Amino acid sequence: MLHTIALIVTQTAVLLAFSPFLIGLIRKVKARLQ
Length: 34
Hints:
This protein is mainly alpha-helical. It has one helix at 2-33. It has one domain. It is rod-shaped and about 45 Å long. The mean pLDDT is 93.
């Protein structure tokens, strides 16, 4: 159980770290599509 919680916490931290990069990427793709 503790292992699963630690895994979720790690994944959340990684997602939070990558979110600005992902948002920038999505904006670039949207700008290209328009």
